[in-house]
Write a structure and sequence with these properties.
Blueprint (H helix, E strand, L loop, with lengths): L1 H32 L6 E5 L3 E5 L5 E5 L3 E6 L3 E4 L8 E7 L5 E6 L6 E7 L2 E4 L3 E8 L5 E6 L7 E6 L2 E4 L6 E6 L5 E6 L5 E7 L3 E4 L7 E6 L5 E5 L3 E5 L5 E3 L8 E6 L5 E5 L7 E6 L3 E4 L10 E9 L5 E7 L2 E10 L13
Antiparallel strand pairs: 1-28, 2-3, 3-4, 4-5, 6-7, 7-8, 8-9, 10-11, 11-12, 12-13, 14-15, 15-16, 16-17, 18-19, 19-20, 20-21, 22-23, 23-24, 24-25, 26-27, 27-28
Length: 345
């Protein structure tokens, strides 16, 4: 009987061991599948950044509004100001080296869209025009006055030719993807504005809820769009019936600025502008305050993220050691190792 109880006891112990092994094994497997936490190093930029391309090139403005390009390898490169103008702003860039933006005169009563490529600055056709984005094919989007229309209207420049997107009452084309799909916002006859997507085959398609003030901020190569709604926050639009609301950690609406091809969104959040903090969001890991993903001793308060590229690099502005509105570039650390670069710590 004693021997029998020993065998039974041994079987119980063995069964318990298998159960514990299975549970801990599954827990370990689950843990290994959890997405790793992101961490970034910070580079202080010598310009106010406005766009980041997939090549890692940052464009923006320096000093008293002069367009410039910056990269880790090439450093800072101010762009020439075209004749008849006194200021320039770089607003967009491509992975192929195009830079687009706005040239302005002294009192800002005159503006012209421009494209910079292969070392040459070219003014684009249109009156009161502004170039805001460009894709790798060199197709440019923005706004301009066109014949017969009083307010500026969304336009596309392709091979130097300007095309009106057909808005009745004005608006802006703010972004373009590799398939020449364009997004922005259009005004209606009642003065309301609404997010739209446009392409050559389908023309204008309104996005999101009707009767809600909204603007399409960015579009990626999958045709997914980040949309900002007035007083309601933002969401990722992935097609009819697939709208994912961005929920912030403090419940305040998100101010979205950028989107990459992995559907990662960046921007700012907070109760008001002076209390804004930069954020990153994706569907799997949800919402993160970017200040929680940098070294606590960095001396930075990241206020808003303006863009993210397909390398996961992020640009924006923040306060740094007593200086306000300082440009930054965040570079994600991989495996605890960081190659090259000038750290601002």
């Amino acid at each position: 009987m004693i021997v029998g109880r020993g065998k039974a006891h041994g079987r119980v112990v063995w069964i318990c061991f298998l159960v514990v092994f299975a549970v801990t094994g599954l827990a370990g497997e689950s843990a290994t599948k959890a997405p790793p936490a992101r961490h970034y190093r910070i580079i202080e930029l010598p310009l106010r950044p406005l766009h980041l391309s997939n090549s890692g090139e940052v464009v923006g403005t320096i000093g008293a509004n002069r367009a410039a390009i910056w990269s880790e390898r090439g450093g800072l490169q101010p762009l020439a100001i075209p004749g008849g103008f006194s200021e320039t702003e770089a607003r967009g860039s491509s992975g192929k080296g195009h830079v687009v933006g706005i040239a302005l005169n002294n009192d800002h009563s005159k503006s012209s869209a421009f494209i910079y490529e292969s070392g040459k600055m070219t003014l684009l056709p249109g009156d009161g025009s502004k170039a805001l984005a460009v894709n790798d094919s060199g197709t440019v989007v923005g706004e301009s006055k066109v014949k017969g229309k009083i307010p500026t209207t969304p336009v596309v420049w392709k091979a130097g030719t300007i095309t009106d997107l057909g808005a009745c009452c004005g608006g802006v084309a703010s972004a373009i993807n590799s398939s020449d799909q364009v997004v922005g916002y259009l005004y209606d006859q009642q003065g309301r504005y609404r997010a739209f997507r446009w392409d050559q085959a389908h023309g204008v398609q309104y996005l999101g809820e009707p009767d809600v003030y909204s603007s399409a901020v960015a579009i990626n190569d999958s045709g997914h769009v980040v949309i900002q709604e007035f007083e309601k926050g933002a969401y990722l639009y992935k097609g009819e019936g697939k709208m994912i609301r961005l929920v912030t950690s403090d419940g305040n609406p998100a101010d979205v600025r950028g989107l990459n091809n992995a559907d990662v969104v960046v921007g700012g959040f907070g109760p008001f502008a002076d209390a804004s903090k930069a954020f990153l969001w994706d569907e799997k890991q949800q919402f993160h305050d970017l200040n929680d993903l940098i070294p606590a001793s960095s001396g930075w308060k990241l206020e808003s993220a303006y863009g993210i590229n397909d390398l996961g690099q992020i640009i924006g502005v923040g306060d740094f050691k007593g200086k306000e509105d300082v440009g930054f570039l965040l570079v994600e650390e991989k495996g605890g190792k960081v190659d090259g670069g000038r750290d601002s710590q």
